[in-house]
Each structure stands twice: as structure tokens, then as C-alpha cells.
Amino acid sequence: MRLDWTCAIISPEKVSSGKGETGVLAYVFWHWPSEGVEARHYERDLISFHETLAEAEPEGFRGSSTYRIEGAPWVGPGSRGYEDWYLLDGSSALDPLNEVAVSGKRKSPHDRVAGASAVGGAGGLYGFGSGEPAAVGSGLATWLTKQRGTSYGEFYARIEPWTNAPQTSLWRRQLVLGPTPEFCVLGRAGSEFPADLSPVAVERTPLWPVA
Predict the structure, then answer these.
(1) CB 176 within 8 A of CB 74
(2) Is 123 helix (H, G, I), strand (E, B) or coil?
(3) Residue 181 belongs to a domain with what CATH number?
(4) Residue 184 lies in a domain
(5) How far apart are CA 185 and CA 183, in angstroms?
(6) SS3 state at 170
(7) Would 114 be classed as within a structural domain?
(8) pLDDT per residue over 41-96, tens digit each?
(9) How far apart are CA 21 and CA 131, in angstroms?
(10) How far apart are CA 180 and CA 174, in angstroms?
(11) Radius of gyration of the chain, Cα coordinates, nearest whole angstrom
């Protein structure tokens, strides 16, 4: 897939704030610049890409956002890099997004970021589970792993105190495209998750859009 280095915060008007919305997918990608590439140049081109993508509005595309992150062991040196979210109405929106990303005004900034990215990167396709989809813009993402022998019903019930919190959403991996955990809770729930869920807390600084 050509969109192998990007994702973002969604425009509020495109996302329902109601709980229980289903069918929303997020293509998430983690990437980092090659050695010697200046972060300010990398970020400038990354932001330019997301700006031009928002103007294009491909079919089924709800919006994108991109973050500077720390604490993700699956990204580059020092567990630091960038995390991009693309929200979609469903898997059928992947093809239009893929084509639009490398055409027209998007092609130049896309190619500059792709050329400056280090070899590697990790991606994943996640489905919205519960909460508020707009919470994708949260400054904290906590990645969780369900223990073997625990049913999904038991797992969901156990994390309800966190996922029922305001401005929080739960996402579950749909396709294994990289080393990232199965579940992601976006939002600051106010307390730490149990250690047996192997929580990985990733701090996110939004680059685009900026609230």
C-alpha cells in the first residue's frame, strides 16, 4: 500500500460524537526519518501531505491526523517517531485513499516524506470498538494485550472503567500488518491499566491538525 508512512486527527464535523458507532476503521502507520534528515523538514512535508489530502476528500475518508510520539517500542531509535491515523467508513475506502494519496497535489509531499523515511515502519488496520471516535485526537494512546485464556467478553468487561470514561475510545486490530498490540485505548482515563495487560503508554503531540 502506498500509504505506508502516514495518519491523523479528524475534523470534528466529520465524526459523530455519539457512543456505539460501528463500521469505522482506522489505518494507522508508524514511521521515522532516516539518519541525517532534519525533523523540521520531515514534519513540514508530513503536514503538507495531510493538508492536501484533506482538500481532496476521497470517497469514504473521514479525515487524518499525524503525531510526534514517544514511548512506542516498535518505532525507530529511542522509541520515538511519528504516528498517522486515517479514519475510513470501511475497508472499501482503502483503494480510493491509496490512489488519491499519490496523485495531484498530494504526490510531491508524499514522495518527499517517503524518500526521507527510514527503512522499516509498521502499520495496522484497527476497527472502532466503543466510546467516542473523535477521541482519536487524544494526546495519549495506551496499547493493551489480552491474556491467553481470557475471553473477549471478559477482557472488555475488565477494561470498562477506562473505556467508559469521557473522551475515550477503544480500537481493536483487524489485520496483523506489524508488531503492534491488538487493542488501543485513546484518551486519558485517569489511572493506570493493570500490569498483566502489558500496557504501553505512548505520548502523542499533534502536528496536524492542531487544536
Answers:
(1) no
(2) strand
(3) 3.30.70.100
(4) yes
(5) 7
(6) strand
(7) yes
(8) 999 999 999 999 999 989 999 999 999 999 999 998 899 999 999 999 999 999 99
(9) 8
(10) 12
(11) 16
Grid cell of 156 as nine digits: 472488555
Distance of alpha carbon 171 from alpha carbon 99, whole angstroms: 25
Task: With beta carbons less than 8 A apart as the criterion, state whether 71 and 202 touch.
Answer: yes
Query: Rounded CA gap, 18 and 24, in Å?
Result: 13
* Parent domain of 18: 12-208
User: 160 in a domain, yes or no?
Assistant: yes
* Residue in the structure block whose three cell numbers are 491526523: 65
Distances (CA, A) of 86 to 10, 42, 199, 203: 8, 19, 23, 18
Q: Which amino acid is at 151?
A: S
How many domains does the chain contain in total?
1
Assigned C-alpha cell, 98: 491509496
Q: Which grid cell is 34?
A: 532516516
**2 domain-assigned:** no
What pTM was computed for the model?
A: 0.88
Q: The C-alpha cell of 189 is what?
A: 482515563
CA-nearest of 93, 173, 67, 84 to 121 is 84
List, for residues 100-128, the tens digit of each pLDDT value.
Answer: 999 999 999 999 999 999 998 999 999 99
State how far the Cα of 128 lies from the Cα of 85, in Å rounded to an integer: 12
